[in-house]
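Troubleshooting log. The previous run stalled partway through. Resubmitting the same two chains, unchanged.
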Amino acid sequence: MLKTLTNNWTLALAETPQGWWAIGWRWFFQNFGVNENAKLTDKLYMEIFWISVGWFVFLMAIMMFCVVKYRRRPGVPAPYSPSHNTRLELIWTIVPCFFLFYIFLQGFHVYIDKLVAPGDALQMTLTAKKWDWTITYPNGAASPERTVIGADSTQFGGENGSPGSRPVPIFYMPGDVPVHINMISQDVMHSFWVPDFRVKFDVFPNRYTTYWFQAKLQGAETNYLRDSAGKDIVTAQGEKVPYVDHFIFCAEYCGDQHSEMLGIIRIVPMAYYLAKTEEWNIEGKTPAEIGKLVYQSQGCSACHTLDGSKGAAPTWKDLYMSQQPTNAGSVLADDNYIRESLYTPQAKIVDGYPSNMPVYTTAQVDERRLQGVIAFMKSISKFAPAEGTAPAAPAPAEPVKK
Amino acid sequence: MTTLDNSRAHELGGGGHGHHEGSYLTPKGGFFTTVWDWATTVDHKKIGVMYLFAVLFMFFLGGLAALAVRTELLDPVRTELVKAVDAAGKPLLDADGKQVMKTVITGQTLARWIPPKGGEITSIDYGNQLYNRAFTLHGAIMVFMVIIPSIPASLGNFFIPLMLGAKDVAFPRLNLLSWYIYVTGSIFAVCSILLGGVDTGWTFYTPYSTTTDAEHANVVLMVLGAFILGFSSILTGLNFVVTVHKLRAPGMGWFDMPLFIWAMYSTSIIQVLATPVIGITLLLLVFERMFKIGIFDPALGGDPVLYQHFFWFYSHPVVYVMILPAFGVISEIIPVHTHKKIFGYRAVAFASLGVALVSFLVWGHHMFASSGELGATVFSALTFLVAIPTAVKVFNWIATLYKGSIALTTPMLYALMFLFLFSIGGLTGLPLGALATDLHLHDSYFVVAHFHYVMMGGTIITFIAGLHHWWPKMFGKMYNQFWASTGAWTVFIGFNLTFFTQFFLGTQGMPRRYASYVSEYQTLHIWSTIGSYVLLLGFLIHLFVFIHSLVAGRKAPANPWGGLTLEWEAESPPIEHNFAHEPIVTHGPYDYETTVPPHWSAKDYPLPHIPANAHH
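Second attempt completed without errors. Output:
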């Protein structure tokens, strides 16, 4: 049951910091140098730590010395000593000011670096809701991949179900490239924290905040993506895919599953990132394919199964055009019912299930994606009416030669 | 058990003055007469004692919630797929003869102790909800009902008039009213707990606190409880300010006041000025929740960050309402148990006022991760400014030890532990005040550890130190020094084990208010939880020492430690009107080099030789 702290953290990137301040950095951090800003932050932290240790040991040494040397002896009065010394008091007021000023300046300097993204950063958007994250890539795609965080994993991802808890999203990000994320919340406040990047910013429901990072992939060459069977994933060029995972934690208390509101940022080579986001791009896909992507990327899979087994919500297998018993009577699960269930889910609840379907807005699932979901549900329902196919276009008439 | 002065002081002290009237603890008649007498008393000492027991009771409740939190965190929550079995324990097979699997949830201790209706735990939500309630109750109770009133309302009420040489506070009836307001507010909070509790966190951040649909009444009750408690703070603060201005004994100028009085004076000013802001804020929160007026909820056009500004404009100064009285207690204990004049009296006194002033200007450092860069920078700079007067105080206390006559009594032991713990608490504030490191550490366990070192290692430890310092005066009984010191060491070890581990959890990325965590953090969580059980053991030892003292303790002399401030001239316990005659101040509060403590003889307290060129 006991697990050491180091077993599956991002050791692949461990770079050893140099300098007097770096002594003991291992006590506080699992890795070093995921990016330049993280390095500077850790350096500042360790400098403050050693300055503090210096002051603390100095003060406690004087205290312990006095307690031993001047302990009470019966009948012996405390000898006279001045109870005021202007020069000493000025010194101990002014000297700490220099330390404080240095720490403030360093903190400000590295902070500005955390705020201001380079102009050539990739632009993405993040939406947070109770209790999930969605990142939309520049091409409009969203990641449908999820994993259960567990102990027996290649890095963080475990096998679905055991052990671990809820599946959390995996966001593929290109390595060694600045990424800039515009963040908004759909309900209460959340806070986007990637501990490895040493930055968090709050996510509000009423205004945008931003987050940027540039994560290294160099040094991760020993860590390759594998599929669920444990085999290395190989690109079309026959190359294995190096990757590094970083945890995302929600750092602003947001309710029941605040501690399950996790995610993984997976740093991969740019080519693989582009291939992945293109794979998830809805352009050029059939409605049913779009629907399947929505099913995977919007968290539907957490409750709705596709194989007929019972989840926390009705399975989608054979659901479309079936009769469902609800608290508002028997309902035909047609297009309009599906639409209603997405945008106003509390209207009718299928018997035997809790009413925990989240409300989606048209900004999250637009008309095209909703059509896709309906098409996808049609494709896996035996009640769906047979579809006609359009006759092949007639061959263009041969030009009549005169 | 013989400890230093006690035995000798016992022979000398006690019964020095004639007994014109009985101790304030002497019952006025039968049981009901006595209860009625206490319930309607305007005696600051009785009110102080009633506050003391109320605060200790709430500390017990808040402590239970803390233990629940720590116990839940022993094990992370996991869902595991296991083979289902039937009633006879045989594997359950489905129609095709395949093993049926079922999902079980492990690691939710609280949910096993308090099972849901129906008995079976089917989702992680139920256990998480219990955990979220436990940490909210812990925070709300400890802040609003324990730490804020602990030293001011109990020790302050009891000792401010005694140290000033007064018969009572300036407005005794108002004082009784404050106590009843405190009880009313606490009852609101306890009702909220009994109805199921709230899960908003003690900060009640919007829009979560105004929009979660569960337990509407509980949130309103809890917020109203905090609102009502605010009035108790305001009235007590007002009372103390007037008392300090108007009721000092003849001969006591401002700079002849004990430093505890200076600290309480600064505290009272903050309470009077800042508490109305939280009153308005909490009332707006109730209105927002009940009538949807749209100040904080963005869905109604409000701004959630506005709430944070309002909230911290009060709650940051209140951090100093919590710690300044502790500074005052330490400034008393160290000179008394060292028999040494405090080093740099004026610097310590003005540092109290300086901290009080700057404390109004640093609230924004709770919002580095949410506010704009200019505000964050200014607030970061101001935050470092507040470190200076605080550091000056620590230097002065340690300088006071130099060439002292240090007696390691329980209160002194606790005072030294305070210097140790508070230094850690203060220094770990530096990476939180620096913007770059704060963006990593904000809302992590590092913050949790930091403010426990300051609030608990500072205020609660000092509260217990003060309780041991003044216990003989309050109840007229001595306590067992050996067992009290054993309790102190147990608390010290338990405290450090519980909270030092949390600094490492924080830097490694463990967010606060998490019911579960990734398994990488488990080892440190286990150590932290073990520490909390050691802490419990330490407090239980103190409880038994105090009960033993009340039941079978030796009678306390009037001045067991050899203090020079006026409360040591009174009897132990003091008579109903404090002093038989109005005291006249003829020496400074810490003039140990020139004054034999009251009730002590010159034979037992030889004065040191003072060089001719010495200047005070």
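Takeaways: Chain A touches chain B through 105 residues (CB under 8 Å). The CA atoms of residues 148 and 161 of chain A lie 7 Å apart.
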